[in-house]
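Fill-in record for ABC transporter domain-containing protein.
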Amino acid sequence: MTDLTKTPLKPEEDVAGPFLPDDAVLIRDLNFSYGDRPVLKGINMRLKRGSRCLLIGANGAGKSTLLRILGGRHLTKPDDAVTVMGMHAFRDTKLNLIRAYMDTDWGMRTVAFAGYGVPLQADIPVTGMMSKLQSQHPERRDELLELLGIDPEWRMNRVSDGQRRRVQLFLGLVRPFDILLLDEVTVSLDVVVRQDLLRWLRRETEVRGATVIYATHIFDGLDDWPSHLHFMTNQGRTGWQGKLEDLEHYQELRRAGDPGPLLRIAERWLRTETEEQKRRKLREKELGTQVLDDKLSQPTLSGGGFAAGRMYDHFHEGV
Ligand SMILES: Nc1ncnc2c1ncn2[C@@H]1O[C@H](COP(=O)(O)OP(=O)(O)OP(=O)(O)O)[C@@H](O)[C@H]1O
C-alpha cells in the first residue's frame, strides 16, 4: 500500500503565485457558508486552460456550490478567493461573455442567464430563443443542432425532458466559451447524445483551449474523458485533486483491464467516507460528545493506494 503521507503534493504551494496566462481557474483558501453553515472549507485549485476537470463527491459535498461560485453566483471569503480567466468570479461581469454555466434548474423556470427571461414552457420554437446569439454563430449553431439532434422547430411546450435538456445545452454552448461549468446537465440525455457531447467538449478543450469543469454522478463512458479530478469530501474539503494520470490507483485498475476504473474509484472514495461517518457517529455515541469530522474523515488515505495527486495537510492530521 502506498504511504501517501510520504509524498504530499500541496495545493497550497500550487496556488502560491499569481494567476498565470495559461491558468483558467485559481482558487485560494476558499471558505463558503450558507448562513452560519460552512459548506466549503479551505478549497485551493489551480487549473490550466484546456483542462477537463471532473468534480466528484457525495450528495451535499458542495460540488454545485463550488460551480455556482465559479459561475459568479455567490460572493466568497476571502472576497478575491476565486479568479476565473484572470477576472474576479463574482464582480467582473465581462466574464459572462466567455463563461458558460449550466445546471439542472434550467427549464423549470426561465432562461435567466443572458438576461432573456423566456418562459421555457411557452409555445416558442428553438429558433425563437436567443436568436441574436444564434445568428452571430451560424456554423456553431448548425453543428450543435446536428450534434444534439434538435429540430429547430421544436416548441418548448411540447418537448420531453431530454429534449428540453438538449435545447438548454444548445443555448448554453452556442456562444464560444473559454470556460464551461456543467452541473449534472447530462442526466436525461440518451447515450448517443451524451457520448457525442462529451466528444465535442473534448474537442473544444483540445482545439480551442477551452476549460470544462463538470460535476456528475454518472461515470458511464467518462473513463479517459477528464484530464483532472477534484474529489470533494462530505466535510467540504478537497480529498484528492490532480491529473488523472497521477492517480496511481486509476492507472493500476486500467492496467488490470477494469472496465470502469473511474466508477470504481469514486465508489471506493464515497463508501470509505460513509464508513468513516458511521464510525464517527458510533464514537460520538460512546463519548457522548461531537467528534471533529475532519479528524476522522479521510477517505483518500484509509482507502489506500490513491497515491500522488494533491493532498491537503489536514488529511494527514491524526493519521
Ligand atoms: N441555497 C442553499 N441554502 C442553504 N444551504 C444550501 C443551499 N444550497 C446547498 N445547500 C447545502 O450546501 C451543501 C452543499 O450542497 P451542494 O448542492 O453544493 O452539494 P452537491 O455536492 O452539489 O450535492 P449533489 O450531488 O446532491 O448535487 C448541502 O448540505 C446543502 O444542503
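KEY FINDING: The two ends are 15 Å apart (CA to CA).
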